[in-house]
Write a structure and sequence with these properties.
Blueprint (H helix, E strand, L loop, with lengths): L1 H16 L5 E6 H9 L6 H13 L6 H7 L3 H10 L4 H11 L3 E6 L6 H6 L1
Parallel strand pairs: 1-2
Helix pairs in contact: 5-6
Protein backbone atom coordinates (compact mmCIF):
# COMPACT_ATOMS: atom_id res chain seq x y z
CA UNK A 1 0.00 0.00 0.00
CA UNK A 2 1.01 3.64 -0.12
CA UNK A 3 1.78 3.89 3.58
CA UNK A 4 4.11 0.89 3.44
CA UNK A 5 5.91 2.35 0.44
CA UNK A 6 6.27 5.66 2.27
CA UNK A 7 7.81 3.94 5.29
CA UNK A 8 10.23 2.07 3.05
CA UNK A 9 11.18 5.32 1.36
CA UNK A 10 11.66 6.97 4.78
CA UNK A 11 14.00 4.14 5.76
CA UNK A 12 16.15 4.63 2.66
CA UNK A 13 16.13 8.42 2.99
CA UNK A 14 17.19 8.17 6.66
CA UNK A 15 20.18 6.06 5.69
CA UNK A 16 21.18 8.39 2.86
CA UNK A 17 20.61 11.64 4.77
CA UNK A 18 22.67 10.52 7.77
CA UNK A 19 25.52 8.86 5.84
CA UNK A 20 24.53 5.38 7.00
CA UNK A 21 24.50 6.31 10.68
CA UNK A 22 20.75 5.72 11.12
CA UNK A 23 19.53 2.14 11.37
CA UNK A 24 15.90 1.86 10.25
CA UNK A 25 13.86 -1.07 11.56
CA UNK A 26 10.56 -1.55 9.73
CA UNK A 27 8.11 -3.78 11.60
CA UNK A 28 4.38 -4.24 11.45
CA UNK A 29 2.40 -3.25 14.51
CA UNK A 30 1.08 -6.80 14.73
CA UNK A 31 4.61 -8.23 14.87
CA UNK A 32 5.60 -5.76 17.55
CA UNK A 33 2.43 -6.27 19.58
CA UNK A 34 2.43 -10.07 19.37
CA UNK A 35 6.17 -10.27 19.86
CA UNK A 36 5.90 -8.50 23.20
CA UNK A 37 2.60 -9.98 24.42
CA UNK A 38 3.01 -13.59 23.32
CA UNK A 39 6.61 -14.29 24.15
CA UNK A 40 8.49 -17.51 23.54
CA UNK A 41 8.58 -19.67 26.65
CA UNK A 42 12.27 -20.40 26.14
CA UNK A 43 13.33 -16.77 26.39
CA UNK A 44 14.71 -15.91 29.83
CA UNK A 45 14.23 -12.22 29.16
CA UNK A 46 10.58 -12.77 28.25
CA UNK A 47 10.02 -14.79 31.42
CA UNK A 48 11.64 -12.05 33.47
CA UNK A 49 9.42 -9.49 31.76
CA UNK A 50 6.33 -11.57 32.57
CA UNK A 51 7.25 -11.60 36.25
CA UNK A 52 7.70 -7.83 36.21
CA UNK A 53 4.35 -7.38 34.52
CA UNK A 54 2.58 -9.54 37.10
CA UNK A 55 3.97 -7.32 39.84
CA UNK A 56 2.90 -4.12 38.12
CA UNK A 57 -0.47 -5.55 37.05
CA UNK A 58 -1.91 -4.30 40.32
CA UNK A 59 -1.42 -0.73 39.06
CA UNK A 60 -3.23 -1.31 35.79
CA UNK A 61 -6.06 -3.57 34.67
CA UNK A 62 -4.60 -4.18 31.22
CA UNK A 63 -1.49 -6.38 31.13
CA UNK A 64 -0.79 -5.47 27.48
CA UNK A 65 -0.62 -1.78 28.34
CA UNK A 66 1.96 -2.52 31.03
CA UNK A 67 4.19 -4.25 28.52
CA UNK A 68 4.46 -1.13 26.39
CA UNK A 69 5.21 1.04 29.44
CA UNK A 70 8.41 -0.93 29.93
CA UNK A 71 11.39 0.63 28.19
CA UNK A 72 12.65 -2.84 27.27
CA UNK A 73 9.76 -4.00 25.10
CA UNK A 74 11.71 -3.22 21.93
CA UNK A 75 14.78 -5.10 23.15
CA UNK A 76 12.59 -8.10 23.95
CA UNK A 77 11.00 -7.94 20.50
CA UNK A 78 14.42 -7.77 18.82
CA UNK A 79 15.73 -10.74 20.80
CA UNK A 80 12.65 -12.82 20.01
CA UNK A 81 12.62 -11.86 16.33
CA UNK A 82 16.31 -12.32 15.53
CA UNK A 83 17.59 -14.64 18.27
CA UNK A 84 19.13 -13.74 21.60
CA UNK A 85 22.77 -14.19 20.57
CA UNK A 86 22.63 -13.29 16.87
CA UNK A 87 24.86 -10.62 15.32
CA UNK A 88 21.72 -8.83 14.09
CA UNK A 89 20.40 -8.56 17.65
CA UNK A 90 23.72 -7.22 18.87
CA UNK A 91 23.82 -4.68 16.03
CA UNK A 92 20.24 -3.48 16.61
CA UNK A 93 20.74 -3.22 20.37
CA UNK A 94 23.89 -1.14 19.87
CA UNK A 95 22.00 1.13 17.46
CA UNK A 96 19.15 1.45 19.96
CA UNK A 97 21.41 2.32 22.88
CA UNK A 98 23.36 4.83 20.81
CA UNK A 99 20.08 6.43 19.64
CA UNK A 100 20.62 5.56 16.00
CA UNK A 101 17.73 3.08 15.63
CA UNK A 102 14.76 4.46 13.71
CA UNK A 103 11.69 2.37 14.51
CA UNK A 104 9.13 2.49 11.70
CA UNK A 105 5.80 0.85 12.58
CA UNK A 106 3.49 -0.17 9.73
CA UNK A 107 -0.16 -1.31 9.87
CA UNK A 108 -0.82 0.45 13.15
CA UNK A 109 -4.55 0.34 12.45
CA UNK A 110 -4.56 -3.46 12.92
CA UNK A 111 -4.01 -3.40 16.67
CA UNK A 112 -6.48 -2.16 19.31
CA UNK A 113 -6.73 1.61 19.76
CA UNK A 114 -5.62 1.39 23.39
CA UNK A 115 -2.36 -0.26 22.31
CA UNK A 116 -1.82 2.29 19.52
CA UNK A 117 -1.58 5.12 22.03
CA UNK A 118 1.01 3.18 24.03
CA UNK A 119 3.26 2.68 20.99
Amino acid sequence: SGKTQLLRRLAVEAIVAHDGEMVPLLVTATQLFLGTCISARASNEALYQRRLMRRSAQDSQDLGTNRFQSADFLVIYIRLAFGAQSPTTRFLRQALHSRRLLLLVDDLHLIPMKMQTQL
